[in-house]
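Technical annex, item 7. During the second reporting period the consortium partners agreed on a shared format for inverse folding records so that results from different sites could be compared directly. Each record opens with the tokenized structure and is followed by the designed sequence. A conforming record, contributed by the partner at site C, is shown below for reference.
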């Protein structure tokens, strides 16, 4: 079993990733299987009070992003195959590192370009629009009809700085967790290797002793047989 099933996982960061990649409705499913291994899709459906097909739809969405993997086993009683699912922490962390790295680049670029173009927002719908997009809709929100307001440079700067800070925090947390996993798994691999080497050495020593004992026994038996022959 991988060591990361027993370690501290940045759950809020994982939940954010799942929302972005598969949808908010999938978050409870991930919370359910996050620190477990090979969970039956029927068990998941039972816990979430959903149909197996609904659960499979969520799992397939996660699988498209390589956030879960499965094994299948045949039910000896019912005769059909059941899939058992595991959330892939390693792939999730890789995806977070990749996405947050891209967001960092975008935010830094946005900071550099402040003052070069205008942006607008709808106060009611909380939606942002670029200058060209705002011009196309005549500076009026198509959702609610409110007039769009220009986003001031100070506000833009605060928004980008906030994004930068959040992305940097997420990136550092994901990288730190991944390094911990790599370190723990390396130690586990080393322990297994040493255990295997010890077992092989013990088996070799046992064979050596057995061979020595057999040789000794054979020698005694031969000596005994020789004595009987001489007496005759």
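Designed sequence (site C submission):
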């Amino acid at each position: 079993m991988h060591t990361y099933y027993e370690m501290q996982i940045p759950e809020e960061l994982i939940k954010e990733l799942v929302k972005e990649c598969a949808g908010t409705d999938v978050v409870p499913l991930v919370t359910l299987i996050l620190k477990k291994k090979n969970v039956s899709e029927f068990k998941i459906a039972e816990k979430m009070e959903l149909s197996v097909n609904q659960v499979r739809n969520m799992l397939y969405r996660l699988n498209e992003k390589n956030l879960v993997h499965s094994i299948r086993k045949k039910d000896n009683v019912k005769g059909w195959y059941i899939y058992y699912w595991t959330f892939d922490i390693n792939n999730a962390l890789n995806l977070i590192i990749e996405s947050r790295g891209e967001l960092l680049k975008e935010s830094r670029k946005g900071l550099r370009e402040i003052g070069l173009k205008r942006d607008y927002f709808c106060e009611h719908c909380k939606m942002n629009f670029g200058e060209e997009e705002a011009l196309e809709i005549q500076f009026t929100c198509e959702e609610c009809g409110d007039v769009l307001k220009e986003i001031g440079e100070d506000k833009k700067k605060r928004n980008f700085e906030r994004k930068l800070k959040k992305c940097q925090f997420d990136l550092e947390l994901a990288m730190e967790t991944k390094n911990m996993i790599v370190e723990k798994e390396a130690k586990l691999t080393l322990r297994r290797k040493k255990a295997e080497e010890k077992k092989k050495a013990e088996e070799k020593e046992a064979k050596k002793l057995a061979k020595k004992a057999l040789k000794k026994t054979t020698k005694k038996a031969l000596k005994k047989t020789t004595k009987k022959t001489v007496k005759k």
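The chain has seven helices and six strands. The two ends are 68 Å apart (CA to CA). All partners now use this format for quarterly exchanges.
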